[in-house]
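Supplementary Methods S3. Complex input for the adenosine-5'-diphosphate-bound model.
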Amino acid sequence: MNSTQASGGHKRRDIEIFNPADGRHVGSVHDQSPDAVAATARALRDAQPEWEALGANGRARWLFELQAWLLDNSTHIADVLQSETGKPRAEAELEVPAWVDLINYFGRNAGKFLSDERPRPHGPLAWTKKLSTTLRPYPLVGVITPWNFPLAMAGLDVPPALMAGAAVLLKPSEVTPLSAAEIARGWSEIGAPKVFAVATGRGETGAAVVDAVDYVQFTGSTKTGQIVARQCIDKLTPYSLELGGKDPAIVLADADIDRAARGIAWGAMFNAGQVCVSIERVYVEAPVYDQFVTTLTRRVSELRQGQDDRNFRHDVGPMATMDQRDLVTRHVSEAIAAGARVTTGGKPSGVGTFYEPTVLVDVDHSMSCIQEETFGPTIPVIKVADEDEAIRLANDSRFGLSASVWTGNRARGRRVARRLDVGAVNINDAIANLFSFALPMGGWKQSGIGSRCGGAAGVRKYCRQTAITEPRLSMMIDEPMWFPYTKIRLRLVFGAMRAVGARGLRRIGITQEKNR
Ligand code: ADP
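Predicted complex, serialized as structure tokens:
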């Protein structure tokens, strides 16, 4: 690849990509200029009408071709993904199967999700009209993704947007753009219509994408999400945002403590804690607190951390960047300085960006490890008196992405789930909602706006709706509200509306109206 790219009269340096586990240089991508993004967007727009005209079945055929290509190239793609993230092999290999599953779900179901609806008229007088609604895609959807799951994050958005009939411009994170570029290669190698492209670059490129598209799906930090939202509002471009999280886990005294500890260890350490819905704080009912902390500490201290080759030898990988490692270091050291205690881990491992899997106890709610998103392999644990205190503290957060509740009593689990101010709750499991593509995935409060993906809404969000009325009978006479207004006709019309809509004697015109 060239080390520079001509754009707007000046040269832009390529973005160099490094493996955070060992600092190795693994590739480079163009830092695309706003002009380059605008040109790509124009080409995508030109190709979109034909794509829309293919219909859901025609579009699904191309997505299933891509699915086959992904499977035929999955070892290489996992290699690329592992090289730019340093993830354990197990986690690097997960992302192609995630795309396979997502393509299968949206490819099979989008046609049904997109079909016209024929709502019943709202009342007897409205029966003069036949009603229907129809969905048409936004011509061009921009998808902006972060670095934690370079492929899977895009997988939640790109297949449903393509199935909706939109063209898609994907802007991956500048930290991990190489695997997204593989998807673009696949789309081109299968010879699909040119309705999908990847724009590599930094924030400026992302802003150019926001400028160029008709709908923005953004996943990333709350801070950048706010900038994107402001830009969208200026142009009245619709958007949905999936932002930060600080997901609580509640362990009730009747829980299976061993399962809770194993599940929470995974829910907090999966992808080294760099998951929007990872568990970032745990509230444990007093009677089982000591047993839980002991079991959790044992489980976490057994985790194998390090850099994998193609074998599945490690459980926990590095932080994606040095900045991220430094953030985790700050949260743990501030907690310790304020009186918290580490039961395992508690420091950078000294290699690359690795941070040791860490359990913190004697934590209070004012600490940064509870107030701010950590996005790292730390589990702060807090003892609570009872279920009510756990719920109160779990809800005491500016974030509201997801939560988990651990209990031996399912009815109690469901009851607690309905009291948590979050977009999703997993009972006796963690992160399960992220893998349940039939469910909407959206955050409350500062965790997002709209829902990210999932179910019919995951496809329909990329469409605009047209409401259509047509006369039920082919009447040649005028409609009742048309000109000229006459007292007799309109009194009849309003009387009929009142007779149908009002209650009691007011239906027949008997009112207590003063000043007649
Ligand atoms: P993180 O801190 O997780 O890297 P960010 O929210 O900064 O997350 O980035 C998420 C994505 O948003 C990345 O692809 C990044 O390049 C992109 N991005 C950063 N700044 C902007 C911006 N101003 N407009 C649009 N996209 C942006």
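The chain has a mean pLDDT of 96. The longest strand covers residues 129-137.
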